[in-house]
């Protein structure tokens, strides 16, 4: 199935999109300390995967409209709760080009959540390189107190990210790396890279796609502090998420 810029904007107008929240837990304590806000699209009774429609709208107006909608929806659903839980962080996937062109600041101001900047983490994908305006926008985001994470990091790139540790707050290790732990396919060099980054303390490693206890235990032994995945919880509606956190 293919989607277009107009399909996504029409879907937003028709209320076909909603937000789910993927808990991020402390691997040491099991406590839920953060979450990732995920956009979900249900059209004609069928769920369209973000892996399908997000790449198709990158670089189009729809990605900006969808991002503005996400910020407003998060503000509506969790704004008051986040103000009551100032140690909790929420990750948002936001295109870099929106930073430098003022889009994110406008959306946050319009949604009334500028005071929550220190609790927001902006997740950037590895693919592509932001232009000079976007890079300045990222620096501005850091000055405003927003956290910066790089998403979907695979094992071959961990050493490069270690060099950039002072410019990032979080590194999100891709599920493909986590899967290697269970299959005994992870080479010692990769484990050592994880240990080195984890021991540095900054950026904080978040392991994605944890599905088994042995993965969680091994990552914890490597020094990884945070994780997410179905071993802990699937992505949840806002009501399910608010019920999950105290547990």
UniProtKB/TrEMBL annotation:
<dbReference type="Pfam" id="PF00563">
    <property type="entry name" value="EAL"/>
</dbReference>
<dbReference type="InterPro" id="IPR001633">
    <property type="entry name" value="EAL_dom"/>
</dbReference>
<protein>
    <submittedName>
        <fullName>EAL domain-containing protein</fullName>
    </submittedName>
</protein>
<dbReference type="GO" id="GO:0071111">
    <property type="term" value="F:cyclic-guanylate-specific phosphodiesterase activity"/>
</dbReference>
<dbReference type="InterPro" id="IPR035919">
    <property type="entry name" value="EAL_sf"/>
</dbReference>
<feature type="domain" description="EAL">
    <location>
        <begin position="1"/>
        <end position="247"/>
    </location>
</feature>
<dbReference type="InterPro" id="IPR050706">
    <property type="entry name" value="Cyclic-di-GMP_PDE-like"/>
</dbReference>
